[in-house]
Amino acid sequence: MRDLSLHLMDILQNSIVAKSDRITVKIFADGITDNLEIEIIDNGEGMDKEFLKQVTDPFVTTRTTRKIGLGIPLLKASAQRANGDLIINSSKMDGTCIKANFKISHIDRLPIGDISETLISTIMGSPEIEYELVINNNKEEFRLNTTEIKNKLDGVSITEFAVLTWIKDFINENVKHILGGVLNEVNS
Amino acid sequence: MKSIAELEEIRKKTLGQISMRNSDDGMRVVVGMATCGIAAGARPVMNAFLEELNKRNISDVKVIMTGCIGVCRLEPIVEIIDKDGSKVTYVKMTAEKSARIVAEHIVNGRVCVDLTIGAAE
């Protein structure tokens, strides 16, 4: 994967396949501790203990685990390359929480990429799910919730091009505002 | 700074347009969005379809995502499913090719044979 937003998109697909109806994405960047954290929390089917053990190993994938495949191992590799790691918590029926962290200044840390494009593509693909995006730099926080947007839209579909474009601009503006100066690839 | 209040305006604007549309049984554009597709560049392809369709004011074509279609080495893969259920599979897609497919296949009904899986294999 070229950037973290593509990893995010990949993991979001797992949550969708696991029949989640609420997915939260938290991006936490702290310049002082030099730590970037991306957390994806869903309320889908979850995984049992056995499955959870196998999930970061691309080579144990069997037919039943094929829906996971390389997505999680690749993210884990990207995190470890940047002095970080990947943690998964999951239990059957409760949903899954995946957290990857990265050392911001590490030369091998992938750039954050286009978070807004990932979000609108995912909303477009599965609009019935409630998405929440939280971006935090330890001083300020940005929060976007699609249910709130849907309520405002009252009857107009969230997949209307004008709405998606607005969401995209809204996210971009806040990514710049919150992550600019913390991640050096984001111009503030 | 943008604020969520702006949605009200977008709502009013789009409500007027929606009434003129009949959306349910049009063509479908299915983009493969598994790990393989995303890594090969499916996201810009999907967005190119959205933008191109909007530019041409086509609203009865649905762009949807699916998992791994099964031929990872030919990703990004896009399937165009017609109203009658017939399917054309385009492989090794790019944003530029998406624009061409919208113009030739979706608007004019001419399949871009040179971009299909049949031409690639």
Give an overview of the whole structure.
The complex is a heterodimer of chains A (188) and B (121). Chain A is of the alpha+beta class and 188 residues long. Chain A has one domain: Heat Shock Protein 90 (2-Layer Sandwich). Helix content of chain A is 37%, strand content 24%. Chain A has helices spanning 4-17, 49-54, 71-81, 115-125, 146-153, 161-179; strands at 22-30, 35-42, 85-91, 95-103, 130-136, 141-145. In chain A, strands 3-4-2-1-5-6 form a six-stranded mixed sheet. The mean pLDDT of chain A is 91. Chain B has 121 residues and is of the alpha+beta class. Chain B is globular, with a radius of gyration of 16 Å. Helices cover 40% and strands 15% of the residues of chain B. Chain B has helices at 7-18, 35-40, 42-55, 95-107, 117-120; strands at residues 28-32, 62-66, 78-81, 87-90. A four-stranded mixed sheet of chain B has the order 2-1-3-4. The A-B interface holds A 1, 6, 9-10, 13, 17, 67, 69-71, 74, 117-118, 120-121, 124-126, 148-149, 152-156, 160-164, 166, 169-170, 173, 177 and B 1-2, 4, 6-8, 10-11, 13-15, 18, 33-36, 38-39, 43, 46-47, 50, 54, 63-65, 67-68.
